């Protein structure tokens, strides 16, 4: 059974990008190889700041959407809160 993850990376310019992946480390490598999202290609390198894991793709995509709706300040607080994949499925 694969894990479905939502992640936040910090780009070189300090901006934050939120995405979905089954294998976050592989996705991070793809971003840094310049083959990821168009947004990150112009802002390399990216550094992983935050992850949450979910049992289903549906749950992960819903959380990705919710995080993308947050203000930058709330995303920074989420990152600073130190929540990780070990504490997934918590609503903020």
TrEMBL record:
Gene3D superfamilies: GIY-YIG endonuclease. Pfam families: GIY-YIG. InterPro entries: GIY-YIG_endonuc, GIY-YIG_endonuc_sf, UPF0213_domain. CDD domains: GIY-YIG_UPF0213. Residues 2-77 form the GIY-YIG domain. SMART domains: GIYc. Belongs to the UPF0213 family. This is Excinuclease ABC C subunit domain protein. It comes from Exiguobacterium sibiricum (strain DSM 17290 / CCUG 55495 / CIP 109462 / JCM 13490 / 255-15).
